[in-house]
Design goal:
Blueprint: E1 2-8, H1 14-25, E2 33-37, H2 43-53, E3 57-60, H3 68-81, E4 84-90, H4 100-104, H5 115-122, E5 126-131
Parallel strand pairs: 1-2, 1-4, 2-3, 4-5
Helix pairs in contact: 1-2, 3-5
Length: 132
């Protein structure tokens, strides 16, 4: 069984995020792939809904509270479980905060910051998907 994570922005723009999730899932067979998510609002919840509708087994690691002290252990579980994590981020427009998670890891950071990138950067294989 292959495990893939789809995580990212809680401020997701619905249409482009949904298209990106479908494009990612098109690469995998639901019979041999499990989708892993953190259950957050935005990318995570869209990925879970779409994955289940397409026949993927889904594992959700929900945080045990609110705040980074709860999100970080959950995000570590996702990164450690997955063979690959996809982080869906939003294109940087205007004076937003560039992704310092990607900057620290030496990756393209020309997108809004998201904890999804923190999670993806911890995984053995990662891919960034930037949506407009």
């Amino acid at each position: 069984m292959k495990y893939i994570g789809i995580v990212g922005s809680s401020k997701a723009r619905y249409i482009t995020v949904v298209e990106s999730i479908h494009a990612i899932l098109d690469r995998y067979d639901p019979a041999t792939t499990t989708l892993v998510s953190g259950g957050a609002v935005g990318v995570d919840s869209h990925a879970v809904r779409i994955g289940r509708n397409r026949g993927f087994k889904v594992i959700e690691y929900l945080p045990k509270g609110i705040g980074w002290q709860y999100y970080m252990p959950r995000n570590r579980l996702i990164a450690d479980k997955c063979d690959k994590v996809y982080s869906i981020a939003l294109e940087l427009i205007g004076n937003g905060t560039k992704c310092y998670h990607c900057a620290r890891a030496g990756h393209n950071n020309n997108h809004f910051k998201t904890a999804g990138c923190w999670t993806a950067n911890r995984c053995k294989e990662r891919e960034l998907v930037v949506c407009k």
